[in-house]
Amino acid sequence: MAQFNKDVLKKHHFWIIAGLVPILILVAVILIWTGAGSAVAAGEKKIKDDISSAQSKKPNGQGVLSKLDENKGVVAGKKDILWKYNWDEQKTLFTWPVDSNGRLAKFLLDPQDPNYVKDPQKAQILKFGKPLPNDNFQFEAFTDTSVYLKAYETEAKAIEPTQFLGGSWRNVLRVIPNWTQKLPESWMIWLALEDLWVQRGVLEPIRAVTQQAAAFEPKRAPTANRLRRA
Question: Is the pTM of this model over 0.85?
Fold first, then answer.
């Protein structure tokens, strides 16, 4: 019987396989339809949920946007006020060294300002990094030892009798010891000035404390009533 079954299978295996193929294809189609249908249904549900969620929200109107712009303006105004306050508090630090010929007297001012010639006190100050004028050998005047190093000596004297470590300001303050014979470029002078201003700002509280400690405040003498109570 077993031999008979094997012979029958061998003889008719083509037709057997041919009969199974449509069944397998049908099963595969059913599975695909089922799986794809579930995915499509899930996708449709997500789309409907997103639409429903979007419809339920109430976006901000033009009034809110206008208020936001107004608040931005207020913040910007506060920023300008703070910048001006800080500038007014610190502008005394941002000065140039003084030379005997007065070539650096207006070095900090913007030559494009109409007041540059008429009324220098009202002229705008050059923004940091802007090209510096050198039409009157200002660069040479700035790097001169009697000008550049003297600015540091002036700052050092301002805190006396407080002493620097080692007895000399050169041990503490950072300077350019030698500018060489080649004239510096504009940006080099700006950076040298920044060093001077920063270190001047560091020394300022020391100068203030020194002056306060040196001041003598008169004390009011005790009155007769106070003496009797004592």
Answer: no
